[in-house]
Amino acid sequence: MAAMPETTRKHPDMWVELEDDPRHPDDNTPKDERGTYVDYLRQYRLTLEMKCEGLSPEQLATRSVPPSTMSLLGLVRHMAEVERGWFRRTLAGQEAPRLWGPPQQDADWLGAVGDQASVEEAWAAWREEVAFAEQWVRENPDMGQLVDHHGSPVSVRDVLVHMIEEYARHCGHADLLRERIDGRTGQ
Known about the structure:
It holds the Pfam family MST. InterPro entries: DinB/YfiT-like (IPR034660), MST-like (IPR007061). Residues 1-34 are annotated as: Disordered. The protein is mainly alpha-helical. It has six helices and two strands; from the N terminus they run H-H-H-H-H-E-E-H. It has helices at 33-52, 57-60, 72-91, 107-110, 116-139, 156-182, and strands at residues 146-149, 152-155. Strand 1 (146-149) and strand 2 form a beta hairpin. Helix 1 (33-52) packs parallel to helix 6 (156-182) and helix 3 (72-91) packs parallel to helix 5 (116-139). The chain is globular and about 40 Å long. The model has no long low-confidence stretch (mean pLDDT 88).
C-alpha cells in the first residue's frame, strides 16, 4: 500500500475540506421528498467519483481480495449498468442492450482491466447513463408514477430509493477498495 501524500489541510484524513466538498450545496433550504431523493443520489454519485480520483488505470482495476472480481473500475462499470437498467429500461421503457454482456457472466466486473481505454469507456458510459437518468427524473416529477418491472409495478419513488441504497452500498465498497490501494479513508 502506498503512503498517503503529505497535506497541509486542516483535516488531512478527509478527501476534501468540509467547505470545499461538492456534495454539500451552499443552499441548505429544506427540500420536498423528491428533492431530497435527487440530492442524496447526486451526493452518492459524486462520492463514487471522488473515491476514484487520482488513481491510475491499474489502480482502478485493482481487485479487492480473491476470489472477488470487485474493483473501483468494476464499480463504475456496474453502476453504469444499474443506472441504464433502472432509468432507460425500466422507467423509460427503452430497449437498451446491456453495456457489457449478460449479468450471469459478470462482464461489468471481469472486463474492468487496467488500461486507459477501459477507464475512459467506463466513465463515458457511466456519465451518459447518469445524464439520462437526471434528465428523465427532471421531466417526470410524479414520484408515484408506476411502471412495469418484470411483471410487477414499481414507482419512481421506489427506483430512486433503490438507487440511493445501491450507491450507498457500493460507496462503502469503494471506501475499502481505495483504502487498500493507497490508504485513503473517510468522508
